Amino acid sequence: MVRSGNLSVDSSASHRRTPSRTVTLGHIQPQAPSYRTVYCNDRDSNMPVRFKGNSISTTKYNVFTFLPKGLFEQFRRIANIYFLGISCLSMTPISPVSPITNVAPLSMVLLVSLIKEAFEDWKRFQNDMSINNSTVEILQDQQWVPIPWRKLQVGDIVKIKKDAFFPADILFLSSTNPDGICYVETANLDGETNLKIRKALERTWDYLVPEKASEFRGEIQCEQPNNSLYTFTGNLVVQKQTLPLSPDQLLLRGCSLRNTEYIVGAVVFTGHETKVMMNAMNAPSKRSTLEKKLDKLIITIFCVLITISIVTDREDLYLGLKKSDWEYRNRLAIGFFTFFTLITLFSSIIPISLYVSIEMIKFIQSTQFINRDLNMYHAETNTPASARTSNLNEELGQVEYIFSDKTGTLTRNLMEFFKCSIGGISYGCGVTEIERGIAQRNGLKVHEEERSTGAIREKGFNFDDPRLMRGAWRNEPNPDLCKELFRCLAICHTVLPEGDESPEKIVYQAASPDEAALVTAAKNFGFFFYRRTPTMVYVRESHVEKMGKVQDVAYEILNVLEFNSTRKRQSVVCRYPDGRLVLYCKGADNVIFERLADGMDDVRKVTREHLEHFGSSGLRTLCLAYRDLDPETYNSWNEKFIQAKSALRDPCNLINNDMKQFIISSESDTIREAEERGDQVEIARVIKEEVKKELRKSLEEAQLYMHTVAGPKLALVIDGKCLMYALDPSLRVTLLSLSLNCTSVVCCRVSPLQKAQVTSLVRKGAKKITLSIGDGANDVSMIQAAHVGIGISGMEGMQAVMASDFAIAQFRFLTDLLLVHGRWSYLRICKVVMYFFYKNLTFTLTQFWFTFRTGFSGQRFYDDWFQSLYNVFFTALPVIVLGLFEKDVSASLSKRYPELYREGIRNSFFKWRVVAAWATSAVYQSLVCYLFVTTSSFGAINSSGKIFGLWDVSTLVFTCLVIAVNVRILLMSNSITRWHYITVGGSILAWLVFAFVYCGITTPRDRNENVYFVIYVLMSTFYFYFALLLVPIVSLLGDFIFQGVERWFFPYDYQIVQEIHRHESDASKADHLEIENELTPQEARSYAISQLPRELSKHTGFAFDSPGYESFFASQLGVYAPQKAWDVARRASMRSRPTVPKKK
């Protein structure tokens, strides 16, 4: 047996399962629990088995489950259960209010929420339908017939054309390539764009044309559907001949065909039984952490409701009961019913429109702000950001731990030849993004050299140094080494050229992006690889003999020693046209360095310094070397090589020393420990003990660093095999403790299940908000296990995107998604929740104060329609505008000061301290509105000389309350737009218009005649206008003073940033315009409406000089801000306006 990647004469040997199996010559018997038998090209024989169809569904609901499951989702919210109970109570005789007061708002809340759920699930359904209706050609009556994917059945013979996706898991039968191979791109599965080779059984190569394929009547005996992406066991029985099958013959659904005109295969697994769908979990119903905390707040409010109902359940005080009275003897029953009367009366303390408003705000945030943000639009792939759910917007602003896939996600899996070192001399003038970022953090300015005239830039090649380009390498101190480097790049690889044999039109198909980049670099240095046969490589060389001369050279490839994780290098033995034998090798630095020839110490030292510099700049590094071979040495080695292949030993280590090293360019080393002694049980025990010892040792060391003042940042690196034992219940706590003490944790070569297990470990063990981001099907479990799942869309596959909550085109867009939209969403939702709590508590407390005057009888203070429309009409729109446009600092400042994001992690805006502050404000304002009006109205009379009655007083209190609560929005907003003024003024005007209409008409039923003409009577008095001016101002005065003291002495981080930049204009609009100007005219038109609101941010509040600057950014920026107490009054009355430079 040989390791994957080495040469092998038995392709099935490496896939045989260990112990407990029955083996016959050329036949592997599938094992328990059972296996399936598939009859190829014979639908009638497969009919009795009833295999699953090929249609897939990723929706949360269907026609039958939508209503029950949707209602269940809605009633998971404690508030909705509460409203349901209140609605039932309001239908009983003990209710002091009309049933419509509670039933109508609850029905509207449920209807709007269900419509939103249906809309989001409809989008998932449309996506499923577009996939299910894709077409594929199957064999029918000796011809290829196109059918939708959903009609595909197990056993069908299918034809897949170049660049098409595989509609199911398919057994590979034949290919247009002469050697029965095809090239597969697995980006949908693992995000890797490098090609994988699949090889059909030689027995089935002939079944390529429909006439021949129709003769195929094979029988597939294979394992049952499972989620293992990299294993497959089975047999193919053809004409009484049994052939063993391996993963090399299985083409997985979601992968795509590359570099092959078409292939023919037989369907093995379909639909939800395919391996990629077996890895997909059912879409979990995620609720944000803030929503769960909101449930706790509502429970607290409900306890307050119970308390005030008990306090006011004192019927003996207003009935004057005696022991002889019937009511006294039944006071417990009367008290019981009175309690529920008061519960219904005070039910408005919990806002019924809260969830609808939040759902609406989140939906608009997702569709209009996140989806249309040009900062997260990827022009190359025409891919905008996509919020696939709006339930988790604010969760983006509280993420503490990020779990990221590496290949294709954290790295784009696109390699460029950037720098090199040849014979101890470094070449390449560019500056990497990491070098630029380090310089910016250190306050240094990067001076980038201008690109030389005629510098070449193409995919895979971003190198600029006139010393090597256009044959200039001939003038370098080591031209022979340069020449050998370029030949090594052009010869030592397994790349396939495609297309015209010209440098401009040729396309390289490589097994990895590294190989493609290196071959592209050789082409641009003048060594153009343009043709390959099984034994020859053809290179068009320029400037070798003399400047300007071009010659085609054919190199005979004698041996290829392929790269694998054990050798960590790839080697090629080639023969020049003049008979020269050369070994070219490329691999990891430690592997190459230890095989260098003697006398290379000086070059080795200088090259290692270059290597470390390249690595610290964020470049992947690779070492290249060569050795001349004499014929006798080669012939001796070749005999051993052939024997080693036959004996299934590793033949590649027989040539190892005396190499000359000349370049560094890619690939770093990862230390892995392999246990290869003893039986399986002993190996498991030893590995577990080693993992246990290392975890405890590392944890003790990490805890020592934690107690030091300036300890280093720690990182944990663990591979998949060790992680399997570290996740054991006995070691899980140790692993979690060590991980939480580290700045970063790197898990190497882990399975999809292990990714999800690590994510769940931190989510449940640390109880912190987690985010997972990935781009392949192997990331789906991890994405669904985290609080927030991000899928990378674009050139890679869509499996991760379909399972995600948000989709972005590149990892770098995570900055805008979290630091900008996440922060803003968290801030907005927190303020919306606090405001709802405040305005409903204020409204309910005025009713509560009134019960003391009515002897706790349960008498209403407000008209039913006043109470019903208070939340849904008179105070609804301003809070929605607050939730949409609130912005503490601009997008550019949010990214400039990433420390601001910690406010979300600390949950600074939803602490019980904040709740207590808002509750105190509500108590104060309710007392002011109630006492000022009721006390002063004792002596108030209308124009006819009558004193004010109950409905006059309650209508005046309600009017003052509506004004104060709406104006409070302006006081709490950091960013005020014209929509704030429109909605605040419109809400107050809407109440007055409603009062004019409602108090001016009468109806025969369902009508409280007491409020008839009340507003007209009130407005005929000077007292009404005086109260409207005085009461709201006094009620808001407490908030005004509190905000001033808080901003002056106990400022939030964002308030300090506001002070630092209070004279600067909002740059967010400029950022959008700048990016838009980089788009094509068509893209600019398409996204013209996608800009965020055009209003400039006006930082309101009190622009006080804060003495607490030193605790934040001011000390870093050298800002001196002395306290100016005498300026408080003057500046408190001013609004900080951005200074916009005048146009010249």
TrEMBL record:
Residues 1-12 have a biased composition (Polar residues). CDD domains: P-type_ATPase_APLT_Dnf-like. Residues 38-102 form the P-type ATPase N-terminal domain. Residues 1-23 are annotated as: Disordered. Keywords: ATP-binding, Magnesium, Membrane, Metal-binding, Nucleotide-binding, Translocase, Transmembrane, Transmembrane helix, Transport. It comes from the Eukaryota. It is found in: Endomembrane system; Membrane. It is a multi-pass membrane protein. Its main location: membrane. Its EC number is 7.6.2.1. Residues 132-195 form the P-type ATPase A domain. PANTHER family: PHOSPHOLIPID-TRANSPORTING ATPASE DNF1-RELATED, PROBABLE PHOSPHOLIPID-TRANSPORTING ATPASE. Belongs to the cation transport ATPase (P-type) (TC 3.A.3) family. Type IV subfamily. This is Phospholipid-transporting ATPase. It comes from Brassica napus (Rape).
